[in-house]
Amino acid sequence: MAQTRFTLHRDPLLANCYKIKLTAALLHIPLEKHNHSILSGDTQTPEFQNKVSFWRRIPVLQVDKSSFLPESNAACFNLAGPISFQTTPFQKAEMLRWMFFEQNHHEVSVASLRFWLHILGEESLSADRIAHIPAKKVAARQCFDYMEDHLANHSQSGWFVGDSITLADICLFAYTHIAAHAGFDLKEWPAVKACCEKVKSVDAFC
Amino acid sequence: MAQTRFTLHRDPLLANCYKIKLTAALLHIPLEKHNHSILSGDTQTPEFQNKVSFWRRIPVLQVDKSSFLPESNAACFNLAGPISFQTTPFQKAEMLRWMFFEQNHHEVSVASLRFWLHILGEESLSADRIAHIPAKKVAARQCFDYMEDHLANHSQSGWFVGDSITLADICLFAYTHIAAHAGFDLKEWPAVKACCEKVKSVDAFC
Questions:
Q1: ipTM value
Q2: Does B59 lie in the same domain as B29?
Q3: What separation in angstroms does the CA of A38 have from each of A67, B93, B94, B119?
Q4: Domain range enclosing B168
Q5: What are the helix (H) ranges across chain A?
């Protein structure tokens, strides 16, 4: 077995952490895991801030003793880099297109609804957050509609880019396959649901 | 002069569009511009949705007659791809780290405040948006603090990654250099302000 080079600083509650674990598994890259609990404030300590990340968020991919890479999708990109997925240069840009969409639109609606409703529970939310739920639900639905249109009408393969799985599928899968936690039923978006099933059927899926 | 291959579908109001124009200028890549007015609803028409982007947002980088690339940072990556900036594989991941940070945290706070306060005007905002301003201001300040810490304490060069300008600097510059539109004075973050000045001093800056 190859020597472990990478350590994932994670909270298993977060699918932003899971997407890095899944990328490593699919590429057969050994990955150490170091668990932190965000609900217990583990990432808010001066130690975490000084050693791991000033930004006090996880996931962070530790690459060596003193190199730490925040941002889940950059971590996936770094893991996949040397091995990569089969893409032309334009397909790599399209892959990043969906990864930026994921962080700019999908994660800030779907993942945030899931965190509020499933992890924290609606009864514990501030009035400000409760007031913001309807807008987040609209935004999440727009994301699923957009993904459905792309997969149903602009993809021959059922993958987001090209003919096989890429980081676009993995990064979008992370919070999409648990959309029920955010109050959505993927039956409404059959091509999106089918793409999730395809990810689950890939060898080494975990 | 090289033949123009790329068309930028843009609204000059948006710095997400400007960052693509700046990337092309710095790399001496000819770029056609096709203007759309978001305030006039140009991107909400069935024509735009069917031809340019189902997502009905700009910027979109048109690569050929039928290939359209949404997401500003993916468009910058695609333009820079063949020429690229000088980066090791890990520096490329670090560059993407800041580009994902920009879309997941900086753009959703700084750009959105700028759009509300400077483009639309506070007097025309819905009660929901007005209620959300304080949280966006806190989030924007956290972004500038994080950037300041990185540039002041973890960068030898004053650039975000490595020893020269990369897409990380360009993508963060877009909304940072006009932070005053969102109500912030960069004097509070001197290393961030200095990085903006460095971008402005690069040959072919526009």
A1: 0.95
A2: yes
A3: 21, 25, 24, 37
A4: 89-201
A5: 15-26, 46-51, 72-80, 89-101, 112-114, 127-153, 167-176, 190-200
* CA-CA-CA-CA dihedral for B81, B82, B83, B84, to nearest 10: 20
Is A68 in the B-facing interface, judged by CB distances under 8 Å?
Answer: no
Chain B positions touching A148 (Cβ under 8 A) are: none
Q: Please answer whether residues A36 and A10 qualify as being in contact, where contact means their C-beta atoms are separated by less than 8 angstroms.
A: yes
- Residue A1 counted as domain residue: no
Given a contact cutoff of 8 angstroms between Cβ atoms, the answer to whether A171 and A72 are in contact is yes
List the structure tokens of B202. 């690069």
Domain boundary among B54, B80, B106: B80
**pTM value?**
0.95
Give pLDDT tens digits for B84-129. 677 788 999 999 999 999 999 999 999 999 999 999 999 999 998 9
Whose tokens are 């949280």? That residue is B135
CB pairs under 8 A between A and B: 101
Q: A105: which 2 tokens?
A: 């639109």
B99 neighbourhood in chain A, CB within 8 Å: 74, 100
